[in-house]
Amino acid sequence: MPLTARHAVALAVAGAAAVPAMAVAGAAAPTTAAPQGPWGGVSNVSRSGSPSDDPRLAAAPTGAVTYAWEGWNGRTWQIRLRTRGPRGGFTPPITLSAAGANHEDPRIAIGTDGFMAVAWKNMRTRSRTVQVRVRQPGARGFGPARTISNPHGDATQNRIAVLPNGDVIVVWMQGQRGLRVLHARVLKRGAKSFGPTVNVLRGPVVDSEAEGDPSIAVAGDGAVTVAWEVATHDGSFVVQARRRSPGGSWGPIQGLSR
């Protein structure tokens, strides 16, 4: 990630909702009115003057909003996080990733009771790995980082969600160009380790790292739907999806586009 600009993660608040924006430090950041009321002023979530990038956020039922982003520590990119309370005011930023390597692409999910999970890519070696940390409701800190992808196969495009029962599901693409497979693993609520890896997409994708781009949606009953794109032999792309039942069984792959 080139350090050609000095970025700050910024936000604007309208009522209880918070929306992130990327603003170059020192430049004016515009605000706009929302249907539910005027926007508040823009505040820096990350430290001004320190390069920051790739902001993500999730809201808890209490109205608290938690932000995760990549922050530069002078040598490497680290995953940082802080929370804005429902009445305003930020917690101090914390660093979730380990020092000594670049970490990128943070993804965050919050459950109905405040259970929080964050996933990102560890860029330590040529084969990137997906790592996850979780925080129990009411806990002051996160548990240890768990590496959930195969360290011998390049992992990318990580996504994460929390189910209504507190289970965590993570999906990602794994493998080298032309041999990438869409994987998923689930951390049961209260479990110490993730369950086995599931091949959501049966068989490798056809083309390149541009494929995949998975998305996760969780229904109120705990059913999970994962959608992604895959290249066809004629060079076009199609969108496919697969559903995981509340009981944990994966259904067949369905083609959504032609």
Biggest β-sheet description:
4 strands, antiparallel
Quaternary organization: single chain
The whole-number mean of residue pLDDT values reads 84
How many helical stretches? 0
What is the CATH domain class of one domain?
Answer: Mainly Beta
Rg from alpha-carbon coordinates: 19 Å
Hey, roughly how much beta strand do the residues contain? over 45%
Which of globular, elongated, flat, extended, rod-shaped describes the shape? globular
- Which structural class fits the helix and strand makeup? mainly beta
Q: In CATH terms, what is the architecture of one domain?
A: 6 Propeller
The H-and-E topology, N to C, reads as: EEEEEEEEEEEEEEEEEEE
For the largest sheet, list the strands in their spatial order.
4-5-6-7
Brief characterization of the structure:
The chain has 258 residues and is mainly beta. The chain has a domain at 102-255: 6 Propeller (Neuraminidase). It is 0% helix and 46% strand.
Structural description of this entry:
- The strands form 5 sheets. The chain has a 4-stranded antiparallel β-sheet with strand order 4-5-6-7, with no helix packed on it. Strands 8-9-10-11 form a 4-stranded antiparallel β-sheet, with no helix packed on it. It has a 4-stranded antiparallel β-sheet with strand order 12-13-14-15, with no helix packed on it.
- The chain is mainly β.
- The model is unreliable at 1-6 and 12-33 (pLDDT under 50).
- It contains no helices and 19 strands.
- A hairpin with a 5-residue loop joins β12 (155-162) and β13.
- Helix content is 0%, strand content 46%.
- It has a domain at 102-255: Neuraminidase, CATH 2.120.10.10.
